[in-house]
Write a structure and sequence with these properties.
Oligomer: heterodimer
Distance between the termini of chain A: 52 Å
Structural class of chain A: mainly alpha
Number of helices of chain A: 14
Number of domains of chain A: 1
CATH architecture of chain A: Orthogonal Bundle
Strand content of chain B: under 5%
Helix content of chain B: over 70%
CATH architecture of one domain in chain B: Orthogonal Bundle
Largest interface: A-B, 44 and 51 residues
Helix content of chain A: 55-70%
Chain lengths: 304, 326
Amino acid sequence: MSEQPVTYSASAEVGAVRKRRSRLERIGLLLKSAPATAWFGMIVVFFYICVAIFADLLAPYGEAEIHAAAFAPWGDEFFFGTDQIGRDVLTRLIYGARNTMGIALATTILSFLIGGGLGLVAAINRRWLDQALSRFVDVLMAIPSLIFALMLLSIFGSTITSLIIIIAVLDSTRVFRLTRAVAVNVAVMDYVEAAKLRGEGLGWIMRREILPNIMPPLVAEFGLRFCFVFLTIAALSFLGVGIQPPTADWGSMVRANASLIQFAKYDMTAAITPLLPAAAIALLTVAVNFIVDWFLHKTSGLRE
Amino acid sequence: MNAVLSTILKRLGMGVATLFIVSAIIFSSISMLPGDFGETVLGQAATKETVTAFRKELGLDKPAPVRYFEWVGSVLQGDLGTSFSGRNASGQDRSRQVSDLVMPRLWNTLFLAGVTAVIAVPLALFLGLTAALYRNTAYDRIVNATTLTTISTPEFFVAYILILFLASLWPVFPSLANIDASTALGERLYRVALPSLTLTLVIVAHMMRMTRAAIINLLASPYIEMARLKGASRSQIILKHALPNAWAPIATVIAFNLAYLVVGVVVVEVVFVYPGIGQLMVDAVTSRDIPVVQACALIFAATYILLNLTADIIGIVTNPRLLHPR
């Protein structure tokens, strides 16, 4: 081995062709730097998404298929037993992943479309529109959202559509606040002014000038709002006014099988059955929270 | 002192205004009900006369603003209207006054919330303060990880785990918290043990994290560093320099979480079959008993607004900058 003398040449460094990392490589590096909690979160979320997508293949029985034995114990035929009217618990857990997560995702996306869109408009148009929207949101936020949701559900009835719309509208108030707060700082920048003078329309300025600059806090907020919406829907379903049977859903599954907990002394597995869907909810929210924590840390945290 | 007084009056005015708008929203929700109201409540078999009489009783033949002010007037006098349940197509009326339904349950809920607050607030403040003082130590990390997990879990999960261990496997406490007016205080406390423990676990996590953040925020300010450089002892820094400025954030934290308690109480009451106002509301939503839902929503919203207002006012009153105007 020949010793290479350690030399440094500035011109060589400047002259060297720097290879730009491809997007895949950058993602790889990013993932490598992720802490264990974030990895845990990502694996859990990936697993949940797989279960939700391939529910039809994974589930041993049909979603609302009723078998002869109600409250059957855990075993080979029914892995986690059956529920109060003889439906396979494992099957309903798998379909519940699809239904509960799908509805929560749809709600969150809708609430971001409403809240984010209005927030951007309010940040650009700082006159009466901003005032009117902000005051209106203040009033809506003065009522606890679970209580408001309960009241509206009693009026419009507990269909999935009304559930999604009601929670999305109530939740969009929080999205509006955040979007407006971060977008106001960007909207006064010179390049936005330049775009306005160029004669660009409101839609262009929203999408092409402001949105790319406020993406990181919005993405983090999306994760947190998803958790919140997910927990709200689970709570409403648990209370019996959310997703209605026979649609499989984790919140209502907990409620339906709750009485089994009393038999913990005689059959521990039976007592755990109602806790399974609750644990599934908790695991997903913890996982998403871990990812959001890491993401916020990465993008030089907005909070803490 | 004038600055303090005028700010407080301004806040009070805003609070009252918010309450009025909220009541208007809650009121107008009744007219959004699709279809004919009378038929929905009394059923398809109701005769025309009964429906007309029912509509007249509700005042649906009058314009909405008139109805709203009549409603506000009667609510202010403690009359919350008449429940829909107990009515039927024949026109027989066995319905009850909403206030008779709500009042005893409201006390039960306040009792549960009060017991929880008495345990949770000092505990959370202690944990938050110590976590802020010994931040980045193992103690801080353990408390933080535990609370993050508790925050992310639904209330009913916590409740059922407690039932599994403390009521089913080792029957220390009852899993049903059924109390009535005649239950003695000691017995009451024993029966609400599990519901208040659940609520405590949930809100201590929130409150502790917020207290910690508020205190850490404060300890980073230059005047604390100055005091430290001056050689003041640790307890002196906390008591004399940090605490006077910390009252406002701490009050906000407490009020925010008591407000959160108002919402969390709904789910917990249903789990433990506790005869509180949250369960009443859920039952009323299921049976679409709109007057009861409205009354409950109004009470919840008013409590929520009132708590936030109190926090604001404590923040103003204890603000050193406002107390000593230049």
